[in-house]
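Exam revision sheet. Question 4 asks you to relate a sequence to its structure. Input first:
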Amino acid sequence: MSEALTLYAWEVSYFGGKLRSYLRHKGIPYTEVRPTIFDYYFKLKRRTGVAAIPVVVLPEGAWLQDTSEIIDFLEHRYPQRAVIPATPVQRFSAYLLEMWGDEFWIPTGLHTRWCHMEENYAFLEQDMAENLLPGWPRWLQDKASAKVAQHMADFLTSTGVVPEQFELLHRWTVQQLDWLDAHFATSPYLLGDRPSLGDFGLMGPLYGHLSRDPWPAQHLIKPRPHLKAWIERMNERGRDMGEYQPGDTIPDTLLPLLSRLLTDMLSYLEGNLEQLRQFMLVHPGADSWPRFIGSTEFSMLDGRYSRPAMPYVLWMYQRMMAVFRASADDERDAVRQWLREQAVERLLDLDVPKLKRKGLCAVLDR
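Answer key, structure tokens:
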């Protein structure tokens, strides 16, 4: 523990909020580096294969990219203050909640940031300018910031953030935040008195975007004091903690959210799987796949949300299922019974081809 990791991240980054919170909770020493535009597009891309943050460099020199794989690796290396529950239903829920934060909240993060530019842009421009070209003339910093902002604006349609879906997405966001605020009024973390993998997954959107950007901070986080307090707790170092809720149970206050999550997640995964099957029929020998394929539609509140399909989310599902299948028979039975009670047992039986992660994409693991 004496040697520090290097964390390449920005405060404005979605997944930086997830990983930074995790490192602080674990007490893993790290030095944070705010990558410049040259780091981002040259050094990081050369080392990891993609221009993406956050990235961790281990003391021995290895470079790791993708927060889920980074946390998997660090949990083995630093087992203290573990973030994976030992009991089956809570463990499965933690992985599910991580996937929820990583994947389901991306449209909300983009919508609350890039569709409220009148309130947000000056703050974002300053943040990005200081990171991208520190010490350079301000006009060049502003030009670089505008280029990044345009790139992210172009990304909106890739997550379904289009005007005809704004109202549904906003209502979904408000409902989730209300449920979370009510839950954190009685429980310090999602599954009890200690944070789990699911808490860190949720910190991506709720810290990096919603609690820092002026519009969502004012309109979505400030009115929900218990949620705001959870965000602050999650960024503290070495906070005292208790245990997960006893008896492998889910807190009652989390059940409405989790029940809805399970239904929507199953619909989303099935839609992505169908698009992947169609893509593989048309491109049977492809060694690489695009990040987005086709378009899928899935349940959201009282409506249907449409966005391009992503094979990556099926890799996330496969990672969760590998943990499930490695469990003892009685533990798998407990998870199956719990999902049967929620009428989503088939979540355990999706026939996903074997995948591996390749940068920001997933491809067949031949």
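Marking note for examiners. The beta strands are 5-8, 30-33, 55-57, 63-65, 293-300, 303-309, 355-358, 361-364.
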